[in-house]
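Quick one: structure tokens for this chain, please?
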Amino acid sequence: MPDTGAPAAYRGLILDFVGVLTPDPAPMLRRWSLSQGLDADAWRRTLTTHPVVKELYAELEVGRLSQSEWNRLTAPILGLTEHENLMGRAWERVSPATEMIELAAAAREAGRTVAMLSNSFGLDPFDPYAACGVRDLFDVTVISELEGLAKPDPAIYRLVLDRMGLPAEACLFVDDHPANLAPAQELGIATVLADGRPDTLARISELLGLAAAAC
């Protein structure tokens, strides 16, 4: 698990959304694909390998395409006739990662500044942050769609630091994609890869000094 070197306790915690504040969504999306009469890998394969859908998704992330329009253009490529609220239908069973959310709440209670830095997949008609109940968890929320920037653009990391009012060296960033960690590291932000290891939460707590704060 990569992390950069360490003051005794970081004062800021920056969390990704999917795969950090939610469980790995892959099993949910496979079940949804099968429920639509598609093969289990249809959603992942289409969004990550189809050249048109990849471009549409990149536009969605930075707010140059609405979720409704993305739904309309992507549904037929997936092989679906119904496009209304496609994203919401696929993600309707998204659930919060309870232990990570509890850790974030504990960090905030202990005086740490807690931020979410998320690449958006649209906010309307389906708002995934509201669906998971994390809207009020953070001191700072930076969502790519609202900023016209997306990870791994270094500018969005600088933006979240500016809004947190903290230097890079005082912050810890957790993401499930290694490519999103590298720009943070280059800015001096410590990083933890959310890779499903059982000691991830304990490691984050240790870096934030939460055990000491609870004593």
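The CA atoms of residues 176 and 193 lie 5 Å apart.
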